[in-house]
Amino acid sequence: MSAPDISVVICVYTEDRWEDILSAVASVRAQSRPARETLLVVDHNQALLDRLSKEYKEYGEHAAHEGTGAVRVLANAGPRGLSAGRNTGIAASRGDVIAFLDDDAVAERDWLRHFAEGYADPRVMAVGGRTMPIWASGRRPVWFPAEFDWVVGCTYRGLPPGRVRVRNVLGGNASFRRTAFDAAGGFATGIGRDGDRRPLGCEETELCIRLTRARPDAVLLIDDRAVIHHRVPEAREHFAYFRTRTYAEGLSKALVARSVGAGKGLESERRYTTRVLPAGVARGLRDALLARPGGAGRAAAIVAGVVTAAGGYALGSVRARRGEATFSALPIERNEGAEP
């Protein structure tokens, strides 16, 4: 089977991340295995749309013919939020595989090559990678447990190493075969990120579960050689954000569990809470006994994170039962001219 063409979608929403956006695009254009195209999807921000359109005007369609990969700037065609932005990129893309990169991250040179290798098996419908934090302060806060790196959008301690089969990939560093969206539809709107509002999540989890229901033979992988480096702003290094994000995750998990059932919706979380987190608490307490910096803080943060997420889950479950929180997933309709 020939290697697939890969389109890369980067969703953006604020000019505050201008330099980060330029770095993200540059990292895609520097790949050892070139992308077919990079699509910048702007989330209801006309000033940013105009500025990016001007910045990448010379990297339009003619760049693809020269083999360097076009950079296309699009407006989010759906409601405000990350899910609709991704769906806009999927609909406009031309590759056999669509990869997603966060707008405040940079990909290592072989990122797309490792993704492409995963699709040699025709059963593989998605391949994710490893996301490493770049702390604004220059180093990890001593109290911040690696088991909770998902709080800042990064790969957390407890995921198995190597190229392994998983329930779901993590959206900021992931790729999907185009036929996955034909089978399952797009990312659900009404769940997940919306600019700087409460940091919800789980949209990729819900999609992956929906995909494996539509295609029971589907294989989803994480390859930890497909590495990106994700910027963690200073505001997210504090416990206040940690608490807000874990609470929001509980809310999101409740919505997903209500939709797909707690059995599948919480399958990975059960192992995480019964095995990974207790080991993290024990490690933190051991470090505290050995007078290592932050040990007690990490143990306490793990406990606090579990309690806060559980509180969010309980409230989210009540809201979901009452129908106060809903989301929807629609088929992806290809844009005219998006075909190769």
Described by strand count, sense and barrel closure, the largest sheet is: 9 strands, mixed
Q: SSE order, as H and E?
A: EHEHHEHEEHEEEHHEHHHH
The helix content is 40-55%
Mean pLDDT: 89
Provide the gyration radius in Å: 20 Å
Strand share of the residues? 15-25%
DSSP E strands, number? 9
Structural class: alpha/beta
| N-to-C span | 18 Å
Instruction: Based on Cα principal axes, name the global outline.
Output: globular
Q: How many helices does DSSP assign?
A: 11
Q: What are the low-pLDDT stretches, counting only 5+ consecutive residues below 50? A: none
Overview of this structure, please?
The structure is a single chain. With 340 residues, the protein is of the alpha/beta class. Helices cover 42% and strands 18% of the residues. Strands 1, 2, 3, 4, 5, 6, 7, 8 and 9 form a 9-stranded mixed sheet that branches. The longest helix is centred in the C-terminal third of the chain and has 28 residues, at 295-322. The protein is globular, with a radius of gyration of 20 Å.
